[in-house]
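[job 0417] fold request received: Peroxidase
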Amino acid sequence: MAFSKRLIFSMIFTVFAILEPSEAALDAHYYDQSCPVAEKIILETVKNATLYDPKVPARLLRMFFHDCFIRGCDASILLDSSKSTQAEKDGPPNISVRSFYVIEDAKRKLEKVCPRTVSCADVIAIAARDVVTLSGGPYWNVLKGRKDGTISRASETINLPAPTFNVSQLIQSFAARGLSVKDMVTLSGGHTIGFSHCSSFEARLQNFSKFHDVDPSMNFAFAQSLKKKCPRSSNRGKNAGTMLDSTATVFDNDYYKQILSGKGVFGSDQALLGDSRTKWIVETFARDQMAFFREFATSMVKLGNFGVKETGQVRINSRFVN
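[job 0417] inference complete; emitting structure tokens
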């Protein structure tokens, strides 16, 4: 992956957002004095990890989403389970996140240079921005100053939006995090990079309803191709699945074009076209990648401000409470 070239040609947006106040005041320049090399260390760590494993960008972006949606952006997704408590990272929706080692590696490097300074929550937020930019997407200034949470419960992952949600359920889920309908459609565009296992969409491929074997909103040829990738067989590999759009290693607006063609992988993706509240946004982003990039950067800053707390700690080890 030609990172330097992508960085040069990537659409760059610098976002200075005025947001509803949270419990903590975040600042794009939070580490300018205390750890000026923080973002450089994180970028280099993410870049090297992606060269080794092209699945890293999608996993780190998903990590940010899942972390922020549970208890706010507090790095609770990084904590290990204990004998008495199963942590978020081991909840069913997070089994496919993986790549925790990338954040752990960045955190170890930061502790050597700036001990007890950069929170794990900020590392996740910066890494999420970096993987988007390195994949050809927009750049934005990450607001920083988050503290790390001390509670992590797998049972709370039930609150994550599911790939089977309809538009009303999606709107409700995102509104609970202070996000608008437009934010929801915009952030769903994060599916432009990544992969899904069959378990997240195979219910659309057979016995869909009393009247339809296959989800009727799905392009027929596309459905047949997915059936071949997800055979109803005990011989199916545990990693069977499909890319989420036709340019799954590039951050672009192809996700929305796929939806217009009936090729949204998740039911929740395709549902965006069938509802008047969201259809116009899908159509706008499908024809205007610049508009998508601009809105994505803004919505990421907004999500990154959700549930941020002033009280907490800066973990020394990302996997354990101090």
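[job 0417] notes: Confidence is low (pLDDT under 50) at residues 1-12, 14-21. The chain has twelve helices and two strands.
[job 0417] exit 0
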